[in-house]
Amino acid sequence: MSNMEARTSKVAIVRCDSYEREKVSGAVREAVELLGGIDSILGEAAAVQSMGKDAEIVLKLNMLGRHAPEKAVTTHPEVFRAVGELLQENGYGNLVYGDSPGSPVSNMEKTAEGCGLKAVADELGIKPGDFDRGTDVDYPEGKVARRFVLCNEIAKATGAGGKEPAGLIINICKMKTHQLERITGAVKNTFGCVCGVNKAMTHATYQSPEHFARMLADLNTLVRPALHIMDGIVAMDGNGPASGDPFPMNAILVSTDPVALDAMFCKLIYLDPQMVATNTACADAGVGTWDDEKIEILLGGVPMQKEGAVITTDELEVKYADKNFNVQRSREFRGSMSLMGFVRRFANKKPVVIANKCVGCGVCEQTCPLEDKAVIVRQDSTGRAVAQYDHSKCIKCYCCQEMCPERAITVKKSLLAKIVDRRWKV
Ligand code: SF4
Ligand code: SF4
Predict the structure, then answer these.
(1) Fold for domain 338-422?
(2) Which of 363, 372, 390, 394 to mutate to test the pocket of ligand 2 (most atoms within 8 A of CB)?
(3) Measuring from each residue's beta carbon to the nearest atom of ligand 2, which residues come in under 6 Å?
(4) Parallel, antiparallel, or unpaired for β 167-178 and 227-237?
């Protein structure tokens, strides 16, 4: 499209090749400037319009579990620091941080400590938000999800449940693969606004990738973060979102549109944005757009280009995308009718235990959202406790794989799925 005025969303992508403090700080600042500056972005939020810079800003991080920053599971502390300092320098002093961790029995602050995020928060004087207790919120406007149990801090900030919003959310997510939704980025990171064990129950209710994505679309229309910042300096590919491999993608992405941001993440890894159910469900719900004809890309962190910062998605792919990023590019087949059933057998995937890595801790069993558990720790023939699956019960939500502390659960792909995923572009 040549008419740039018809574009509806902007995504700033700033190249950044390390977590060196100065570099990260410079990249975050440049990206925010490319979008018009922090005051202009946050000035759109109702809470800033009514309370000015005293409005509470909730920095919603990715704190899936207690993982060291170099594992690339959680938001890197230097990205958190860069955002916190930028806000404080611009007069936004009422900052809190948090996330509801993946395990239903985790404590938010202990998890933050394990990810290196608490140390930054303490240094900058950013308070921990109340993410361990929830508020029941009715949401009659939801298309599929009309009730959520939101973390108290999120309910307070957004005014969800009919109160005046006391603040706004900045969503600081991580660029990773995800076994249910292919990727986890800006849209999926909002799932940590749902409190504790309710996340597992939500998985049990919305089982397919499409149904789960439609629930996420409702959640995003409810909590609507004012800004999304993605840590893609070292991303995670393969067996994400917790057991994959760190993969340098060398970028910070920033947008007010979470779908556009995730779509550009897709472009950087040669994944068609339309193959990600969260993109299409959120576009249908009016959360944003995945259509690159409607997205303006503003590139920073590179020597000044002749034409300025604006580039096309084709240029983005040619210059910066990485075809070696290991992500599920095959289609999932569903249905049990003859031909589909046959294809399904040969093109699908399931969680499996790597027996020699399993220590029998039982986290997978606790995490499985089904009442009649699809994974149970039992003694094997040698008397050793090891997790065992009943795949006929499994709904393939991959919560067990996300939460296994030993990286002992992997996703077994059929031959056909492997062949398709090996192709770099579908
Ligand atoms: S598979 Fe992982 S979570 Fe499950 S029992 Fe083994 S080590 Fe623990
Ligand atoms: S066994 Fe794992 S993937 Fe299957 S339903 Fe339970 S948590 Fe989900």
Answers:
(1) Alpha-Beta Plaits (3.30.70)
(2) 394
(3) 351, 367-368, 370, 374-375, 394-400
(4) parallel
